[in-house]
Amino acid sequence: MAFEILEPGLATTVQDRGRFGYYNVGIPQSGAMDELSAEMANALAGNTPAEAVLECTYMGPRFRTDMDAVIAVTGAPVDVKVNGRVRAQWSRLELAAGDEVSFGILQGGTRFYIGVRGGIDVPVVLGSRSTYGLGGIGGFAGRPLRAGDLVPVGGGAGALGGQEPRQEIDDGLRPRFEKEISVRVMPGLYDHRLTEQGMETLLGATWTLTPVADRTGLRYSGPEMEWRPRQQPFGAGSDPSNIVDAGYAVGSIQIPGGKEPIVLHRDAVSGGGYAMVATVISADMDLLARSAPGTRTRFRPVGMEEALAARHERRALLAQLWGTGT
Amino acid sequence: MAEILSPLPGIFYRRPGPDKDPYVKEGDRVDVGQTVGVVEVMKQFTEVRSDAAGTLDRFHIEDAGTVNPGDVIATVSEG
Q1: Domain range holding B16?
Q2: Nearest CA to CA, how far is A208 from chain B (Å)?
Q3: Are A43 and A164 contained in the same domain?
Q4: A9 — alpha (psi -120 to 50), left (phi > 0) or beta?
Q5: Alpha carbon separation from A67 to A148, A154, A208 (Å, rounded)
Q6: Digit-coded pLDDT (tens) for A101-154
Q7: Where does the Lipoyl-binding domain lie (chain B) (predicted)?
Q8: Within a domain: residue A325?
Q9: Is the pLDDT reported for residue A161 higher than 80?
């Protein structure tokens, strides 16, 4: 029971909901970058939210299944082809043994997800099947897929417990892949290091996502920001954006040299010496994952209450997806 | 007239290295599967190949220009 990879795509990795509890020793959470799309792929395939899926970046793989399979493709808009024929995205697809799946050119966004009934069955490492490529941990041999890989698919008939899987995801529930987005952030922990004007620039400017964006983080271009002058403390680097090394939060924004903010994502290193001036709230991390280079982005400041309300709203949406109520 | 599309966003280069000759020049003959350039994104260089055989008429993206998925990189007169 496997998918034979004929062409790997640009950076196709196995991901699930992530590997939590090891950030303190430098191992990030990993997991699908656009969690909502990944969970929707599982819902359509007839899985639980926990099964591993394939995350495809920009350019998808071409693969052949050696068994009958139920798959679903969600996420960034792309033509899904089975034996060369275009089939629907956001919908349950039945494959026969020997069928070949390939993808067209991405029409927006960055990442799309392939869910398969039974899940991608790679070994669980530290509680997760997610690939952490930089560390060579998890996923398929700890790396993105290559041509010739035989990616194992689980034999479970889907663990929905008799519940009829969704045939498709309603248009109203599907995430949007927009060219202009607003991302909510909480200022801190090191916002006091920017001048008032520097902070106003960060929260007022429209930033453009550069092509320098991957699972580790996303870099934005836009105006420069000013730091407050100070005598750099012992242990901090000489650049005003340097601090004494500290732990990084996933979603935190650092601005090396005051230019081109970087938002850390799910494969981020766990610490370092750049001031984190704000942090993207957990509910909006998927928005970043969906952004294509060129996406115009504003960072809107919110307080803890609004951040928690957004997290609650997101959980309610997932509960609706899985039919488990709130 | 066939179009060669970029499969990726990133930076398009017409030569394999800064001091190397371009893969193809306008007016050159190209074959199916021949590399006409590379797109750099996420620290990877992906070759862009022609799906058609003929004469490469024109590049629509400058060397080191930005591309998005589906952008026309070059046009080929088939034959």
Answers
A1: 2-78
A2: 14
A3: yes
A4: left
A5: 17, 11, 44
A6: 999 999 999 999 999 999 999 999 999 999 999 999 999 999 999 999 999 999
A7: 1-77
A8: no
A9: no
Element (H, E) at A306: helix A304-322
Query: Among partner residues A11, A211, A214, which is closest to B9 by beta-carbon distance?
Result: A211
Contact check, Cβ <8 Å, A105/B7: yes
Q: How many whole angstroms separate alpha carbon A289 and alpha carbon A256?
A: 21
Q: What does pTM read for this prediction?
A: 0.94
Residue A206: CA count within 13 A, CB half-sphere: 6
- Exposed, middle or buried by CB within 10 Å (0-12, 13-18, 19+), for A17? buried
The pLDDT tens digits for A278-319 are 999 999 999 999 999 999 999 999 999 999 999 999 999 999
Q: Looking at this protein, which amino acid is placed at residue A9?
A: G
DSSP state of A103: E
Structural domains counted in chain B: 1
CATH number for position B66: 2.40.50.100
Tell me if A324 is assigned to some domain. no
CB A58 within 8 A of CB A10: yes
Give yes or no for A321 touching B (CB within 8 A). Answer: no
Q: Are residues A191 and A160 part of one domain?
A: no
Model confidence band, residue A170 (pLDDT cutoffs 50, 70, 90):
confident
CB B50, CB B56: distance < 8 Å: yes
Domain with A216, as residue range(s), is 180-319
Residue with tokens 């299944």, as numbered in its chain: A65
